[in-house]
């Protein structure tokens, strides 16, 4: 009989940890629940922070190195908090040949941030996506969760400006 | 529910649908959503309600194919298609149903874009509500499964698949019937079926559209596969980047479970099957079977040497069948209509149809399904409407980072697995990116190498170090700083990485370089010898500056 996992306390009293625990419980605290649990944590908190990684490692009885390995292996997971607003520039092939690089250059020119970085005032994070699957509408960007298709660098900057001002 | 009860449910829905004199199908797939298809949907719905119209149904459907002209609205029974519809067009559109078609927004459905397509996988796409089980049932959904379970033995199902000649649609092109029979023959206390929905190719969105537009079809395919190979549990591994696809497949699983199409004793038979969704987390290498299995096990997605193949020892060491979304989507119609029907389409060695995501420098971008054997020219110039802005065609890229660029001289070649391989590309999962004279082929090769470099899982040296070195050399060429020795080294590295990498990612990573070198060597030479980029893409510190 497998040992009964002992109760592991979450890092804080934050209610969002219950969601993470729910996911782990649903999978019987088995080690293969790791990726699903990290997904839930990122959904709840926006990113994966170290106390959370420790918590999941303990609850699933996995070495922290393994949890950290998985968290950094997959591009979807981020260990850094995002700014108040995000702009994801799709770098899929169709978007690339329709000027996605130029969009990134213009954003960097105006806000001084490269992909993966956040402005000093925490207002804007710029990210890239491998492909968001909106190839029919290249070039595509996602500003605060809303996809905008067939955009130019100028239109993207306008969208960001509007988002940041809101 | 028994088959009879399910058929009754289907008949009832068909009757219900008959009661509506007009049906407005609003495309709510990702493409149209991103140009505010949902606001069109709401506006039409509000308009119908405020006018208290009877017999008019407004429903959200899956992909209507022509993404470039979205948001799209289809009006039944006349099958009129409207493009670039805005929310403010709602009143006019509703009035047009009772009068003359609205010319201003009409989209010609007799155009080659629609007429040259042959839809099997996408037969329901845009025609049913993807969130309604009844809609799918009314469109003969789950008939294939019921036939398999009540009239056929697992061996007969596999024989039907073999007869159909279906080959894996994820890109490899492995015969599906053979794969199924290998798993069926393998011995194991448990067996698993996995649906590979980790569509990682940049520039490809076929699986996404299928999952979003017709999720039950994929589930039906998986259950049939489970029955055929003797598995009782399945995993649908879907990219987390496709939240709508994830939501729809989860919803479909819930609905199917409720009516007993999933769970114990499906359709009153002794066969049981369940499906669980697992989210991908953004790793291209997880398209490789063994890496995907590692990911489902909660580990880093790193591949392992084969054999043993997953068919013998896969998930947790049990025999595992892995097929792509589109492969599973082909299964229900094959079981419904017979393998011979499917084998009647396509070419000698590539049967049926293929879904392509047509994008890039082409007029009609969108999702298309064409019979195997059609020529690239027909796809690009008839269906795709050619190159916009009077520009000249340069190349078409298939197969993503594992594929190659095909030049004009091969455009009259039929599209099938073997012909594409012959010209240095691959069928791939179905991304098709058209490039015109404004694209620099060295830059494109560099783009794909950057992709492979960052997606390399790091397990084997040739791929981890090789892609990095090749990317460095390509960057040097693009910057106009390379010598002919660099080019020779690049070609040598291509061979090494291709022949010694562990998995498909590394083995095919040199393909974009090799194919562009094969057909566009002069562009490489222009960068190296003349220090110029013929397309004007690469920022080379002009020779003029050096001379000055």
Question: What's the arrangement of secondary structure elements?
Answer:
The complex is a heterodimer of chains A (166) and B (548).
Chain A: H1 16-26, H2 34-45, H3 50-59, H4 64-73, E1 85-90, H5 93-97, H6 100-111, E2 124-129, E3 141-143, E4 146-148, H7 153-165
Parallel strand pairs in A: 1-2
Antiparallel strand pairs in A: 1-3, 3-4
Chain B: H1 3-19, E1 22-27, H2 30-33, H3 37-50, E2 56-61, E3 73-76, E4 80-82, H4 90-98, H5 112-115, H6 133-138, H7 143-151, H8 154-164, H9 176-185, E5 192-197, H10 206-213, H11 215-229, E6 233-239, H12 243-258, E7 274-280, H13 289-296, E8 320-324, H14 325-337, H15 339-343, E9 353-360, E10 366-371, H16 376-383, E11 393-398, E12 404-407, H17 417-422, E13 431-436, H18 441-455, H19 461-478, H20 484-500, H21 504-508, H22 511-529, H23 543-547
Parallel strand pairs in B: 1-2, 5-6, 5-8, 6-7, 9-13
Antiparallel strand pairs in B: 1-3, 3-4, 9-10, 11-12, 11-13
Helix pairs in contact in B: 3-4, 7-11, 7-14, 8-9, 8-11, 10-11, 10-12, 11-14, 18-19, 18-22, 19-20, 20-22
Model description:
The complex is a heterodimer of chains A (166) and B (548). Chain A has a four-stranded mixed beta sheet, covered by helices on one side. Chain A has two domains: 16-73; 85-165, 3-Layer(aba) Sandwich (Glutaredoxin). In chain A, helix 6 (100-111) packs across helix 7. The longest helix of chain A is centred in the C-terminal third of the chain and has 13 residues, at 153-165. Chain A has seven helices and four strands. With 166 residues, chain A is of the alpha+beta class. Helices cover 44% and strands 11% of the residues of chain A. Chain B is an alpha/beta fold and 548 residues long. Chain B has four domains: 17-109, 3-Layer(aba) Sandwich (Glutaredoxin), CATH 3.40.30.10; 140-343, Rossmann fold, CATH 3.40.50.11540; 353-436, Ubiquitin-like (UB roll) (Roll), CATH 3.10.20.600; 441-543, de novo design (two linked rop proteins), CATH 1.20.1440.230. Helices cover 44% and strands 14% of the residues of chain B. Chain B has helices at residues 3-19, 30-33, 37-50, 90-98, 112-115, 133-138, 143-151, 154-164, 176-185, 206-213, 215-229, 243-258, 289-296, 325-337, 339-343, 376-383, 417-422, 441-455, 461-478, 484-500, 504-508, 511-529, 543-547, and strands at residues 22-27, 56-61, 73-76, 80-82, 192-197, 233-239, 274-280, 320-324, 353-360, 366-371, 393-398, 404-407, 431-436. In chain B, strands 10-9-13-11-12 form a five-stranded mixed beta sheet. Chain B has a four-stranded mixed beta sheet with strand order 2-1-3-4, covered by helices on one side. A four-stranded parallel beta sheet of chain B has the order 7-6-5-8, with helices on both faces. In chain B, strand 9 (353-360) and strand 10 (366-371) form a beta hairpin. In chain B, helix 20 packs antiparallel against helix 22 (511-529). The longest helix of chain B is centred in the C-terminal third of the chain and has 19 residues, at 511-529. The radius of gyration of chain B is 24 Å and the shape is globular. The mean pLDDT of chain B is 94. The chains are: A alpha+beta (166), B alpha/beta (548). Chains A and B meet through helix 2, helix 4, helix 5 and strand 4 of A and helix 2, strand 7, strand 9, strand 13 and helix 18 of B.
């Amino acid at each position: 009989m497998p040992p009964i996992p002992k109760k592991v306390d979450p890092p804080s009293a934050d209610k969002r940890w219950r969601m993470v625990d729910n996911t782990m419980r649903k999978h019987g605290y088995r080690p293969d629940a790791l990726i699903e649990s990290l997904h839930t944590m990122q959904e709840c908190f926006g990113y994966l922070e170290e106390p959370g990684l420790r918590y999941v490692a303990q609850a699933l009885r996995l070495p922290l190195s393994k949890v950290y390995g998985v968290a950094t292996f997959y591009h979807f997971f981020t260990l850094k908090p995002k700014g108040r607003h995000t702009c994801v520039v799709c770098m899929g092939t169709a978007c690339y040949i329709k000027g996605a690089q130029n969009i990134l250059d213009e954003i960097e020119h105006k806000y001084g941030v490269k992909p993966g970085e956040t402005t000093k005032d925490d207002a804007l994070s710029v990210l890239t996506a491998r492909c968001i699957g909106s190839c029919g509408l290249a070039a595509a960007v996602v500003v605060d969760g809303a996809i905008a298709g067939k955009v130019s660098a100028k239109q993207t900057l306008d969208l960001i400006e509007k988002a940041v001002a809101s | 529910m028994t088959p009879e009860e399910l058929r009754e449910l289907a008949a009832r829905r068909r009757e219900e649908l008959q009661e509506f004199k007009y049906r407005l199908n609003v495309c709510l797939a990702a493409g149209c959503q991103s140009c505010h298809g949902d606001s069109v949907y709401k506006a039409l719905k509000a308009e119908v309600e405020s006018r208290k119209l009877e017999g008019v149904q407004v429903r959200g459907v899956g992909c209507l194919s022509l993404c470039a002209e979205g948001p799209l609205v289809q009006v039944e029974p006349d099958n009129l298609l409207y493009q670039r519809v805005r929310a403010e067009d709602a009143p006019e559109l509703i009035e047009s149903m009772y009068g003359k078609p609205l010319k201003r927004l009409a989209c010609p459905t007799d155009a080659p874009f629609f007429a040259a397509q042959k839809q099997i996988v996408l037969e329901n796409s845009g025609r049913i509500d993807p969130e309604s089980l009844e809609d799918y049932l009314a469109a003969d959904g789950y008939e294939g499964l019921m036939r398999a379970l009540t009239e056929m033995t697992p061996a007969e199902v596999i024989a039907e698949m073999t007869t159909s000649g279906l080959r894996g649609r994820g890109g490899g092109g492995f015969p599906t019937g053979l794969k199924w029979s290998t798993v069926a023959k393998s011995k194991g206390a448990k067996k698993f079926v996995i649906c590979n929905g980790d569509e990682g190719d940049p520039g490809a969105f076929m699986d996404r559209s299928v999952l979003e537009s017709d999720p039950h079809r994929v589930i039906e395919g998986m259950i049939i596969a489970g029955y055929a190979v003797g598995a009782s549990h399945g995993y649908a591994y879907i990219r987390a980047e496709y939240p709508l696809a994830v939501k729809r497949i989860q919803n479909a699983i819930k609905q199917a479970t409720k009516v007993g199409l999933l769970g114990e004793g499906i359709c009153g038979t002794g066969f049981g099957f369940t499906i669980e969704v697992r989210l991908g987390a953004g790793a291209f290498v997880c398209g490789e079977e063994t890496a995907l299995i590692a990911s489902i096990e909660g580990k880093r997605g790193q591949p392992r040497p084969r054999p043993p193949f997953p068919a013998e020892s896969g998930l947790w060491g049990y025999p595992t069948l892995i097929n792509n979304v589109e492969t599973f989507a082909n299964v229900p119609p094959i079981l419904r209509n017979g393998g011979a029907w499917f084998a009647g389409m396509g070419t000698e060695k590539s049967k049926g149809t293929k879904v392509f995501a047509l994008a890039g420098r082409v007029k009609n971008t969108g999702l298309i399904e064409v019979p195997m054997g059609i020529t690239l020219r027909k796809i690009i110039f008839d269906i795709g409407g050619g190159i916009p802005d009077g520009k000249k065609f340069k190349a078409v890229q298939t197969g993503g980072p594992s594929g190659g660029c095909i030049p004009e001289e091969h455009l009259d070649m039929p599209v099938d697995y073997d012909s594409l391989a012959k010209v240095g590309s691959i069928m791939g999962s179905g991304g098709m990116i058209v490039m015109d004279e404004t694209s620099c082929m060295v830059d494109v090769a560099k783009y794909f190498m950057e992709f492979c470099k960052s997606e390399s899982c790091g397990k084997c040296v040739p791929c981890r170090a090789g892609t990095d070195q090749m990317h460095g050399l390509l960057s040097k060429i693009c910057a106009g700083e390379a010598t002919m020795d660099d080019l020779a080294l690049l070609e040598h590295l291509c061979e090494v990485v291709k022949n010694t990498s562990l998995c498909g990612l590394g083995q095919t990573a040199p393909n974009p370089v090799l194919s562009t070198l094969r057909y566009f060597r002069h562009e490489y030479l222009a960068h190296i010898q003349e220090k110029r980029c013929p397309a004007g893409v690469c920022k080379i510190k002009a020779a003029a500056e050096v001379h000055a």
